[in-house]
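User: I'm putting together a small comparison set for a docking exercise, and I want a reference complex before I start. The sequence is below, and the ligand is S-adenosylmethionine. Could you produce the 3D structure with the ligand included, as structure tokens?
Assistant: Of course. I'll restate your input first, then give the structure tokens for the complex.
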Amino acid sequence: MSELKGCDNLIKKLRRVAINVAEGQISRAPSIHPFLICRDLSYGLEAIPIPVTNEIDDSPITPIDFTYITSIQVAKNVKVPSSDDYGCQCKGNSCRINKTCCFRLNNMYPYVRRGNCSRLVGARDIVFECGPRCGCGPDCGSRVSQKGLQYQLEVYRTSNKGWAVRTRNFIPIGALVCEVVGVLKRTEDLENASHNDYIIEIDCWETIKEIGGRKKRLPDEPLPAKIFLGQKDDETTKNEPEFCIDCSSFGNVARFINHSCDPNLFVQCVLNSHYGVKQARLVLFAGRNIRPKQELTYDYGYRLDSVVDADGKIKQLPCYCGEATCRKRLY
Ligand SMILES: C[S@@+](CC[C@H](N)C(=O)[O-])C[C@H]1O[C@@H](n2cnc3c(N)ncnc32)[C@H](O)[C@@H]1O
């Protein structure tokens, strides 16, 4: 009986694969992994393919209700700060020795090199990197967060959290995992969004200023960016709109990374083309050594009772991270 059931399941799976081959959603080559439903979520946009697997249920064959992108898009009504005054004149790989390089904006050099991999030494309020207006080349050591995927990631189905992301490689502590990519929008434009599952707030300024219960990452470190934030006084910055990254319709693999109350990744704000902290890039780094097959998670950082519905009623979402220190609710 159980053999027959197994056969039945296999037939169902093959039928789904056949449908998706016909619809062009997955490669025509037969898969060796019985639960592989898409060979590459990014359809070739990432240097390393991101397979999607589902051993759990019959939910839509691929999480295809969004378009995969690899760099931030900007909503029409968002003005990106000027990049005229950002950048260094370093040439080639000279950034490490050049006193005027962008990385000197960091109080301390943020990365350390171990073998082939540069690692972030620890979470900072903000990391300054070289960027598009700099004279140095793409191999400059001050562009770590711009390197794209470095590890084999897999999107997979869970029994209680929908889709999730796990690594197929060992990821060392401090290593770049991925940027959170989506559409940069004004938070106020999303306040009436019916669901906020894929909206990530850029809270760099709030962290620096310890607003809303946030804590500075390195409390004793003088704020390296102060003089640059000082181009606009605090009052002006405070009154500027808030921004977030909306990954609901356009996004990358980060959109499938779940919350944990004891996460193995952390969000690092990075600036590399302007000084507008409210529009910092959000980049995920490993907060500890991560073994192959482990789920990747970060702390979404919601305050309890901070999410309300259209009628102003507090919304609650249970947390299934399963950690001993679980707060039981995401919000
Ligand atoms: C950015 S999405 C993550 C990917 C999502 N699981 C999916 O299937 O597309 C955020 C949503 O995933 C779910 N989620 C993430 N972490 C969770 C957790 N620890 N417990 C329960 N649900 C979680 C919640 O529905 C949340 O709003």
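Helices lie at 2-22, 204-208, 226-229, 234-239. The longest strand covers residues 265-271.
User: Thanks, that's exactly what I needed.
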